[in-house]
Amino acid sequence: MADLINPLFDNLFRKHQKSNKDFILFADGSRLTYQSFSEKTQKYASIFKDLGIKKGDRIAFQLFKSVECLNIVAASIQMGYIFLPLNPDYTKEEVLFFLKDSRARLFICEEENKETIDAVKALGQIKVETLTKHGTGSLNCLEKGILGYSKVMECSENDIAALLYTSGTTGRSKGAMLTHKNLLSNARVLKTAWRFNSNDVLLHALPIFHTHGLFVATNLVLLSGCSMLFLPSFDREEIIKLMGDTTVMMGVPTFYTRLLESSALNREKTKSIRLFISGSAPLLSQTHKLFEKRTGHKILERYGMTETNMNTSNPYDGIRKAGSVGKALPGVQIKIVNEDGDIVQKQNIGSIYIKGDNVFKGYWNLPEKTEEDFTADGFFKTGDIGFKDNSGYIEIVGRDKDLIISGGFNVYPKEIELAIDEIEGVSESAVIGAYHSDFGEGVIALVVKLNGHEISKSEIGLNLERKLAKYKRPKEVIFIEKLPRNTMGKVQKNLLRDIYSETFSS
Ligand code: AMP
User: Fold this and answer.
1) What is the pTM of this model?
2) Does ligand 1 have an atom closer than 6 angstroms to the CB of 167?
3) Are 383 and 413 contained in the same domain?
4) Does the CB atom of residue 395 touch ligand 1 within 6 A?
5) Domain total for the chain?
C-alpha cells in the first residue's frame, strides 16, 4: 500500500475519484457522482495552492450548507491543510475571534456578508474568497478554466485535519484539534457498528459545521461509498415525502419530536429505512417509545462530542434502551469516576472520562487547558456526568456544570425534568439552579405547557411531592413559551441561568 500517504484522503476520497456512483442526491431529483465531486475538489485544491496556502495552514469557511463546503473539506484534506467549518449564524465579532485565534490564512464566506468580509480584510494576512448560491462569487470565478491538481500531500495519522470550535457556553470557545487518526478510526468503528454499506442512502438534514453532520454522517457515507440525500435543513414535510428513497436517517432529538408532531409519519412512510439514529442531545425515552409505536422503529441513540467523536452506541442487534446512550464503542475506554478520580460502582453517578483513538489531540493554543482536561493516564474529562447500569449501558444525567447543589445535596436536573415531563399537561421542562441565600442554590423548574392544556404551579408541586425528596423539589416553577435551544437541539441552560439568576434574590 505504498501510495497510502494521506490517511483521510486515501480512505474517504481518493478511492472514489473515478466512480460513477451517485455521491449526492438532491431533493429536486438531480444527482452528483463521486467523480464530478472529485473533479471540483481537484480544482479547489489547485486554487488554494495558487493562493499560496501551505501544508498545516488553516482555512476557514462560513457558508450555507452546500456541496461546495464538502469540496473545501476534501481539498483541504488532500493538501494537508487544517479546516475550520464555522456556523453561518456566527456574528462578525465571533468570526474575527476564530480567524485570529486560529491564525487562518484563507477565509471563504458568502458574498453577501459584506460587513464580515471588510472586517476580515482589515485584519491583513488573511485571503478572502466568496461563494454564492447562484454560482457566482470569487471562488466560482477562479474555478473557471483552471486545471485540476492531482497531487496528494503526505500526512501522518497524527496530523491535524480539522479545528472544530466548541460552542463555548461556559467561557471562550476552544478549538478542538482533530487528527486524521481521530476521524478515520471513528468512521471505521461506526461503519461496522451501524452496518453501513455501499447500498445505503443516508437522509442528511443536519448542519455540516458540526461533528454530527460533518464527521459522523458524511465520513460514514464516504467511507462506505454510499449515497446521501443532501437537504439544506430540516423541513418536516419534505423529509416525510422523501424518506422512502433512503435507508438511514441521522438526527438530533428535535428532528424526531417534530416528525412525531405530523400525523403523516407512519409505518408505510418509514418502511425503506433500516436505521434511525439520534444524538447530540438527550432523546427522551417518551420520544423513543412514541416513535416505535408509530413507526415500528427503535431509534438507536449514541453519544459523542466535538472533542471525542462518538463514544457509545446502542447496539444494531440487541437491546436499544430508551433513555440510554448504549455501551462504549470498540476501541473506546470509558470510566465513570468520583471526585478523587476513582471508578464508581455500577448504578452510581460520576464523571465520564474517555480514552481512545477517537479522542482529540488537545485544544488549539491552550496547552494549560488541555493538560487540565486530561488525566495523567490519558483520559479526557468530558464534563458529562452519568452512570453505567448493571448491563453496562450508560445513561447521561447532564453536564457537570448543570449539577445543582442545594443545601449541600446534589440535585441532578435530569431526574427532576423526567418527573415533571411525566405530569399531564406538560410538554417539556428544564431545571436549573440559582443563587439562594439559605441553600447555596435553589432549584428552579422552567416548564412548557402542552398546547391547549392548563396546569397550575400548585398541581406540579403536588405531583412532585409524591415523587421526589424535598431537597430535589423546585423552589420555583416558572412557565415559559419554549425552551431556548441551539442548532443541535441542546437546551441552552447557560441562557436560562442568566435570565433567572436573581429569582431568589428579593
Ligand atoms: P457537541 O460537542 O456540540 O457535540 O456536544 C457534546 C455534548 O452533547 C456531550 O458532551 C453531551 O453533553 C451532549 N450529548 C451528545 N449526545 C448526547 C446524547 N445522546 N444524550 C445526552 N447528551 C448528549
Assistant:
1) 0.91
2) yes
3) no
4) no
5) 3
